[in-house]
Each structure stands twice: as structure tokens, then as C-alpha cells.
Sequence to fold (213 residues):
Amino acid sequence: MPHLRKLRFEDEQGNAGFRAQLAEQRWDDHRFYHHSLVNQSLHFVSACTFMVAYAMLFVDAALASLLAWGVAMTSRQAGHFFFEPKGYDHENAVSHEYKEEVKVGYNLARKWVLMISWAAIPVVLWFQPTLFGLLEAPAGFVGYLRHVGFGWLFLGVGAILLRVAQLWMQRDLETGIVWATKIATDPFSDFRLYKSAPKRLLKGERMDDHVAA
Fold:
């Protein structure tokens, strides 16, 4: 494990603080990975759903997780997998391979692992409802769904903590903390950024101009 030290959210010249790093990660994520207005529209749907799930989290965590993963995560990942261009990015003058390599969070390869894990949880709990005795037997199908919801909740938290640990080892702890903050607040940022995407999509536009954004 990397050496613990006092957190320093500055670059080598001491210019960039926490908020500056957060803004930089948000901008890079937007300009590199959100060209398609279909993808942006799906992210808007995802953002709205996540905000509802956040409000439900302390009332019914299992239901909030089912909503977050079942609607919000599937819609936003579908946007990345199926609608975002995978060719050369002429606007930023970089290749798709480069963008995958420098992705701070979950690139497409890591997303595949995450989504396979997501899909595996309900299958495992269907055949092992008590998870080999670790859980109480679910009360019917609703109980099964609640177990799935809690499983997805632990997966989400675990995925964030795992990536923070990876970024700590590969770069530094600050980068991981900034990224985790970005992920937790993405629904609010995405709502603001992509609220006009569905209307533009209905008008026949397909790609966004990030310079104008």
C-alpha cells in the first residue's frame, strides 16, 4: 500500500487545488467520452434517475439501488457502449486507444468487468438465495429483488473503493479522492450539462460541439 502522507491537492507548481482537479476531470470526461447526443440524452435520463435514487437511499436502500442500477447505470453504460464513436477523435486529435489508456475512471474494458459482475449478482442469488448461508432466505420474489438491490449497492461501493485504491497505487490518493467525488456528484453535473441533449436530438442533431460547451 502506498505511503500515507498529508493530502496535497496541488500540482508541482502549487497551482491546482481540489476544485481545479475536479473541474479538469469533469472537462476531460465530457470532451473525450460524450460526443454523441444519444449518449448525452441517456446520461440525462441517468442523472434524473440517480437523483431520485439518492433521495430514496436513506428511506429504502435496496429499492434505491435497484433503481440506480436497473435504470440509471444501464442507460448511461448503453450510451458509452453502443452510441459513443470509437474511431479517431478529430476534435481532440487523439485516438480511441489513447482515450481508453488515459481514462481516470472505468474505461470500456473495466466497464465490461463491472457490468458482467452486475449481471452475475441476480443470477447467483437466483440459484443461491442465501448466498451459501450468508443471507437470510428471501421472502418470495420481492425478497429476492431486495437481496439483488443490496448486492448491487455493495458492488457500486466496492467498485468505487477499488478504483480509488488503484489510482492511489498508480498515481496518488488525491486523484482517487477527486475521482470518487466526481462520480458521486456526476448526476448533478450531468443534469446541468446534458439537459438540452434530448431536445437537440429530436431536432435531428447527432453530435455535440464541445468547443461551444
User: Anything to note?
Assistant: The CA atoms of residues 85 and 110 lie 18 Å apart. The two ends are 39 Å apart (CA to CA).
